[in-house]
Batch of 3 targets.
Target 1
Amino acid sequence: MKIRFFFTACFLVVFCTLNAQKVGTWTTYLACYTTTSVAETENFVYAVADGTLYRYGKDDKSINKVYSTQTGLNDTDIKIIRYNPSLKKLLVVYRNGNIDMMDEDDNITNIPSIKNSSIIQDKTVNFIYFDGNTAYLAAGFGIWVYQMDKGDAVGTYLNTSSYGVCIRNEFIYASTPTGIQKGSVNANLRDPANWATVNTNSSDFKSYNIRELYLFNNMVCFRADSSGVYYLDENDKIHTMRSDKNLIGMKLESDYLIPFTSATAYFYKSLANPVEKMLTAINDISSLKNNGNFWVASGGNGILGVKRTTENQYDIFASGSTVEGPKRNLDAYMTVHNGKLLITGGGRWENRYGNAGTLMVYEDGKWFNFDERKVNNKVGTCRDYTSVAVDPNDENHYFVSTFGEGILEFKNNEFVQQYSHKNSPLQSALPKSSSVGNYVRVGSVTYDKSGNLWMTNCSVDKGILKLTSDGTWDSSFSFPGVRNADLVDKILITSKGHKWVNVPRSTPGILIFDDDKNYNFVSTLSSGSSGTSIRSNVCLSMAEDLNGTIWIGTSQGPVYCSSPSNAIDRPDALTFSHIILQDDNDENYVFLESEQINAIAVDGGNRKWLGTSGSGVYVISEDGKETIHHFTAENSDLYSNTIQSIAINHQTGEVFIGTDKGLISYQSESTEASESYSDVYAYPNPVRPDFDNQVVITGLMANSNVKITDLSGNLIYQGKSAGGQMVWDCRNRSGNRVATGIYLVLSSTEKAKESVVAKIAVVK
């Protein structure tokens, strides 16, 4: 028995040391699935997928790095990348106008001029043209000129939207909503009077549809949306190169002009017919050297290296498949079930957003992304997956709500069937419409402890339905407040078995009911005798804490209900309260009264994680009186201050935060508490000199009083657990690092006597 215990303890130490994320650190989970932009450099091929930059090594033939703000980038959501071979620099341009300039050694220089401008409204960069060391950026506000070698912004030209730019002889050409503009490089191009409109009137295309411009065979070649490719001769007269309504882009690479559709690239060596074509999925193409090799951004196929072998024949010689991770940066809803994170990406408010059907699962460090095409091929296009519920009797059995196509059932990662108005009591919001099938709007689904599936049905007379564990439908739940409401949102099932349903639109409020159909619709959140009226009844999120208190995120701050048991039997005694704090002048104020609370989650220490619409994440104490953390995009690794969802893995303490720019997590110091001290351990253990002294003691009971002593019983440190976990920095009460030795962890609660629960070896 002793040998077995020693082996188990050693295994736990090694496992936790190798796999545990350090408390207080962030982990990026950005989508890197659909590759849209590519740029070849001397030794690497850089690509952008879903706004994320990654790198393929030509030598090791693998994706060897994924970039983020944690690796040196200065922003998120990349729109375009281009490589300047003259300076051997890569320009990384973000959708908000921010720019990073980097080399192959990952030396990064930030150029925030466009992003930080208070004058520029549309900061979208559409096109990049290099003339030696100078970059010309065609953007929503005009043409921005930047000398890359000197780090100087030359100026802004045109002051109107621009989609493409190039230089021929002494003139700059730019495509704009009014057609092609032309100006002499020797003139003051900041003056609009020094620009002239090139006559591009043609029956073949619309002037406002002109996009990319390139100097090819000394002609200004351009692509017009839904038309084809044309060029301006030396007298600026228009000639047709290729009529093709399906073209989506055009590049000039290795002396080839390459217009392309989503499936075919055409290679021009001259203004005549293309010398050849290549068939492959294509969003972008790049080639640094004229050696017949091309690199293709190939959507879900990642990046492909293709080489011409014979006429019209290109073989794939390299492939950088997409990086494992979430399929999309859509995370409107998240839940964790037994350590498994499930995410849906649908959106809705007054109407549906039209987001692609998105269901993603993360477990044991691996991602599984459901292929919505398999669903669409069987039942038609299904979009806006709004929530997911895991069967308590089968963790591989899911039900997914959609805001238009009813409910989808999955088992063992395969689609099973669809439930709609045709085969269930679910109703359509437009029962008399010919498009009734696209209006079966389900706000959310959730399971109760008995294995019954509950759901909300929007814009219909019976807004609550139940599918029992034996497969029987019950649609007899018809309540005022949710009847015909256009958005009946989430169902929170409390520890008492009551169902709380937030209705944020129509007649806002909260429906509370039990299995016997007793109910109370709360349209006004009463503050009772507290003296502070509740600012808003627009309820967007809900959670029950470990004491049974219900926390509600409203459009004007968090609200809590400490008497939820009164909701049905004694509705007059049901009261809600804001968090009231005092300012420096001892004046009372309502905490976060100007913030919309989109998400609430409760961790193992009974602390509340509040996701706001514009101020990031607040972590508050059990009673809400203390702010423990306030994470923003400015003071942390958060991508954005707009938070959409929060879910906590109580086994590990990892807090998943869904922002409008994608998913990120924070390793919290709190985990779910244990019922005894039988599985307490500390990691890393031993603590070596090269470690930064953070030791996590986990497996504790709730509200444990933890003491660290030396072998002689001298008290070194004392603290309280956050749920089932506490962090010790290997320092004594004077703040000095402790000496080499063995230290004892003693713990106790009101229900458990003090005892030694773990030992920690420290090497100084």
Note: The chain has four helices and 65 strands.
Target 2
Amino acid sequence: MRTDLEIAESIKLKPIKEVAASIGLDPSHLDLYGNYKAKINVSSVYKTAGDRPDAKLVLVTAITPTPAGEGKSTVSIGLSQGLNKIGKKCIAVLREPSLGPVFGIKGGAAGGGYSQVLPMEDINLHFTGDLHAITAANNLLSAMIDNHIQQGNQLGIDPRQIIFKRCMDMNDRALRNIVVGLGGKPSGVPREEHFTITAASEVMATFCLASDLEDLKKRLGNILVAYDYTGKEIFARDLEAQGAMALLLKDAIKPNLVQTSENTPAIIHGGPFANIAHGCNSLIATKLALKLCDIVVTEAGFGADLGAEKFVDIKCRIGELKPSAAVLVATIRALKMHGGVAKTNLAEENVDALVKGFSNLLRHSRNLKKMGFRSIVALNRFSGDTEKEMQAFAEECKKHGIEFALCDSWAKGGEGATELAEKVYNLAEQGSQTPAFLYDTNLSIEEKLSKIAKNIYGAENLIIRSEAKKQIASLVKNGHASLPVCIAKTQYSFTDDPAQVGAPDNFEITVEDVQLSNGAGFIVCRTSNIMTMPGLSKTPAAAKMDVSAGGKVSGLF
């Protein structure tokens, strides 16, 4: 069996100008990054396409995943190819991969098999430099905070209450908790510092929810960086940092155009994590794609309890998006895991465990209805799935009245997703819908959290630690209580305990920490056991990667 990289290298790519022309873009709309990548000048496109009616918008989400993921990107790409095969003009709109997962355990986020976005080596590595620009903008603000304190601290910033963190796009647990400013007076004021991974940073979330460069600059200025000695809020605009930060991001804010393994146009832009941030590609990219085709396929990270909920309550709310349908990706192996099979034994046939684990799919399916979606389940086929298991899956879907389609896009590309494409398009044809937001933003912070915990996760109770209660009181006092909430929670369970698989009942969700993400426009509420800087595994994917003297890449997937 050929690897993803070998398949990618065998594909004949079209010049990106030809791909652009297929969706009505001419060379004046593009900033070329070689022959196969380009950035899109959004403002010039809107001059010619701004009056077009919006395309249909389809969200791809998933059941609660295994650590290796359930193939949402592969299904999203395959679905976009399948829609084009049945004669629909489709664009896939996805997130940019983070180097942390690429070199960690999951590998890249460019799809797989014959449903990839290409050139996958570039996309999974430095691409067009967007994540590096976001890292630089983030760390410029951090440098300006410490420099302000060093140069007299006119704003009276309390070094003990600096909440804005440095970031880098790599898994590095050693940077979670550090001390900066050592080395005497010339090296600054010593203080405790923390790093997040770039995909979990506030600048990333802010970037992905901005409507244009001017809005981005305003949002960057709104970032809460610290408190002074009296408890007064200090923002990035108080340090006059937003202009230079926006300058670093002036090219990054332009969406990236590439193609799939079947030359379907794909726009890839932004990459916030869904277990920590809102987990969706940039609002700019989504809205642009809606003006360029008949139907747009996008995705939200991890399971529907995280990505889909935040897509609705944050992205759709802020961007006034009206999706037409949702696809819930499931795999046989994940259902067996939720039925109690150990991760090391998921390759073994186990129909009983699959049936038991179906409860996880049912809860996600019901949740999508609560969010206002018409939805269909896509069974993402793996080579080890047995006929008995697939038959049992079909019987469970029929038993519970769930529409599903087999998706074999890894092995067959768009041809393996045409059944899914037909059913998705039929759903989308029923019209766009205003999402059913799970809460009114005018509710209290506690009430908003409780609605998500009880109605989506299935929790019996919500516990808010004493420190989190103090933080909530401060946010209320300073006028931030009406913002949406973004719950940072493990992606491996409906609960805040990653070991609890299936669809548990009678559990509690515990909120440990509450912080304002004012640039992005939401409040981040961290539950138990969630970290914003991951670490590498004992044997990271990086250990198997290499490049030859001639530049041939190996081990990347």
Note: The CA atoms of residues 388 and 543 lie 37 Å apart.
Target 3
Amino acid sequence: MKTDIEIAQEAVLEPIEKVAERCGIPAKELELYGKYKAKLSEEYIRSLQSREDGKLILVTAINPTPAGEGKTTTTVGLGEAFGKLKKNAVIALREPSLGPCFGIKGGAAGGGMAQVVPMEDLNLHFTGDFHAITSANNLLAALLDNHIQQGNALRIDTRNIVWKRCLDMNDRVLRNVVVGLGSRADGFVREDHFVITVASEIMAVLCLAENMEDLKKRLGKIVVAYDLEGQPVTANDLQAVGSMAALLKDAIKPNLIQTLEHTPALVHGGPFANIAHGCNSVRATRTALKMADYCITEAGFGADLGAEKFFDIKCRAAGLKPDAVVLVATVRALKYNGGVKKEDLSEENLEALKAGIVNLEKHIENLQKYGVPVVVTLNRFLTDTEKELSYVERFCLERDCEFALSEVWEKGGEGGLSLAKKVLAALEKESRFHVLYERKLPLREKIETVAKEIYGAAGVSYAASAAKQIAQLEKLGFGDLPVCMAKTQYSLSDDAALLGRPEGFTVTIREVYVSAGAGFVVVLTGAVMTMPGLPKMPAAFRIDVDEEGKITGLF
């Protein structure tokens, strides 16, 4: 069986100008990055504003397991299937982070016959957006430390600096560092921290900004520290906005590539879903809605993280109204949730399936709370039995969901025709989309609404420091912002070991801080990290390049 990278490398790609031409994009509106990648010009994006929006379709999934679910693969395959049905569709995806590519998760181009290409470019550097974000983040950090070194006119409390440096790589030893060691000229000695680039507030800001003017306004609001009176010190106070924006002037433009079947895909931005809001950029989604009759997008990790933030943060901020949502699962993943070991998932086990399907049930219930029609799809494996597939189908139909099997990994768009037809049927239903909570609620009430309604928690407990942080943020006027819950992706709870549908658990809030530029309050739960580490056997061990420049081992 061929690997994903082998399939991608054997594919015959169309010049990106031809892909663009079929979308009605003139060649002059492309900023080319080689033969198969391009950014869309600002002039073209502005020219779309008078067009009607197409239908917005979100693809999400159950909690990820080692058995695999295939959310991005389904998103890509669904777009290809729409093409088979002669429907005008554009896919909108996130860009991959180098951290997971070299760590444990792998790339984010889809898989099998449902991939976006060029796959190696996408997973490694792409058009440089993440490097620009990293540079802008660290420029702000450098300006902050330089301000302190040059006399600290803003009277920054050096014990209350909240801005962190970043790096787009999993590197646990950088979580907590000391900077400024050496002579007096080397800066003020203090504890500092790193986050992974996809957890940087600048990533979230870029993905929520409407245009350059909005980007600069949001950058200026970023809180970097607090002064001796406890008042916020912002990037605007440090006179950092113009130079940061200059670094981001190209990164703000959406990137156009294609699928293996030449369906256009806008791939732009990539906040982590268990740390940040987990969605591609508002600009890419809005552009896709104007370019096509259907925009198919995804949100990161399970619906408890990615979909909740897509609805309550991205849609709220951008005024988006999704028309349907696709919920991805596999029989293997459901049996894993039912207690079956990974090595035994190929065996038929209806009892384990019945025990584990409660995870799917909770995600269905959660999505229906937003008033959007739901389609459940199973990525089919050869080892799935008819009894298992029929059980899941009956289960979904009894819960007022459309249901379809998906074979896009093996067959590309042809394997997604059944799913595409069910999505089209769901689009005929009325979407009564609404957010889960109102902004005016106190922060604690918003936190507890998500924890109880989406995670299924019995209650929420707050570390003393977190309770103090909430009180301070509300006092400073940040209490009306939505909450961005940072939680493990592996469980509905904040404990990664609790599979299925946990009940009676308490979510522990350990830290709360504001991302004022992004426009939300970040809430850290459990042991979730903003700078991941590498596993014992990282994916980096398998990656190589030969003398002709051909990359291997990147999946």
Note: The chain has a mean pLDDT of 95.
